[in-house]
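[09:14] KT: can someone run the structure on this one? pasting the chain below
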Amino acid sequence: MSTQYLTTDELAARIKYDARTIRERFKDSVLLEGTHYIRPFGGRKILYIWDAIERDMGGHSNANGLAVPMARGGMCHG
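[09:31] RB: done, structure tokens below
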């Protein structure tokens, strides 16, 4: 099984968000290092893991109730 890695611009085009929004609002709040993105070889470049993002993106939209995403990927229902 091969994993598909995306740059910030490629991810932005795929999910229809501005790349700046991904870098400033989503990274480290909704998208977590090690789960949704990696820094190959310990460098500055970020590669997003498409399978994890696609899996979790739909899980966060819950029409039946209010849920707040938590830092480690859990949800606070309240």
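[09:33] KT: thanks! The chain has three helices and five strands.
[09:34] RB: yep, looked fine to me
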